Amino acid sequence: MDKGEGISVKQKETEKRTAFELALETIENDTKPEARSRPDFIRTPFEESTTIIENQIPHLTAIADTHLAGPQPFRGGEKAITHGKRRVLAKFPSIRKRIREMAVLTRFALRQAAPEINKRFEKGGLMLIMGDVVVANEAGAVFYAYHDLERYYTARNKAVGMKNKDNQIRVFKLSGNHNRFLGPEEYWGSRALTKDFGMFGLEDFRSITKAVKEGKSWEVISRAWNRYRREGVENDNDSGTKLAIHSVHKWYLELLTHGSQIGSIETTDDKEKVNNQVAFIDSELMQKNGGVVALKKALNQVNIPDNDPLHGEMVNRLKSEMATQKKLINQILVNSQNGAKTTIYSHCAVTVQDNLIKAFQVQRDLTKKEAKDFIQNNFLIFGGHRHLGKHDYAPGRERKGAVHIQGMTREVIGPVIQTPFKPEKGKVFPMSLGDPYKSGDIDYPEIVVGSADKPEIKKIPEVKEMFKARFPK
After folding, report:
1. Structural domain boundaries in the chain
2. Which helix (H) or strand (E) holds 183?
3. Over the Cα atoms of the chain, what is R_g?
4. With b meaning 16 or more CB within 10 Å and e meaning fewer, what string describes 10-29?
5. H-run or E-run covering 147
6. What is the pLDDT of residues 117-169, one digit of tens each?
7. Is the pTM of this model over 0.85?
């Protein structure tokens, strides 16, 4: 082969790569070697087995509902908002102001939670976010938010002197409703932005999934995406750089990043009988819009056809997750009947509790009341989703055996926007555009710390003072 022919082959190989992959190579070469790959500690503890037998239940630190939305500048009107539903409401200046206050408040909460999370990195164990990590519906904002969280955890590891190089800690997340394939978040989220920006395409999705599978860091992926989208666009603020991203895309990218959340950690007695179990369950698989039919409809919406390999890969992965969870639920029910203490972590505690009651009723041929009494008396289920915890007043949100952790975000986006702290008692809906300092009792974000089977729930009270300093009257 002569020299010219060799160059031709190399050129052909380059041409096979997508524009994003070429940008990825450039950014990777410009990135420090230690930041090119995803940190080893960001991965599920259930890589090798759904059930892990330990001498003792590991310690855990958990937070809920970070609702990250990428960079949301304080200028640019509603077009700067990267979540479809919030963007619609942000046409009103007072609501737009409150949305941005909520985003800043989440930052404050994460900053104030850092010392407790640093301790977990130093001591080892499990670091968990109980769902709804990212709520953005614009691709660049989503990737930035993933990078932001990756950077946050890396900073926690650096703060304790990089003591977890030998994987003493596992950082992972639970799936939440913002990754549900169909429904309000999809309709008011990605579909709303698609009208303005167009939808994230199959070729781009294929390139991103490939990068995630190869273990590229979200820093590299996010920066490469930003470079790729801005090439040829003169105005950096031009909406031509943006693309809407569907919840089905986010679900799969997060699953590839963290691995499966489904599994249990057990201890046994001298006779090898399970006496304590902590399980992690995907509440979204229990929802109508979180199953295979909904997934196929969502894939059709984003133009991933039945005959595309990625379509089959995603459907098969979901079927595997569902089968694994069904087996796990049967297992923990049997163990509980045999006397095992049972603790569960999920995004929506009430959804899990309802489904466990149904499963136990069928398994043991019981009345609904008998099944309900057993589950509520023998299972302690921690969840997020209800951002205001016990102060979220809608009927049925306080349940025996279900604990709602107050989220890092203080947002409730509905007809109006939630004040950052608990509203006055007696209101039917905990939503108001009123004075955020007027609330009686203060509603703080919470963090779960301690042995995973008997953790302590701590409040993060400094957040109010930081909010008052940042947004004075």
Report:
1. 40-470
2. none
3. 23
4. eeeeeeeeeebbbbbeebbe
5. helix 139-159
6. 999 999 999 999 999 998 888 899 999 999 999 999 999 998 887 665 555 88
7. yes
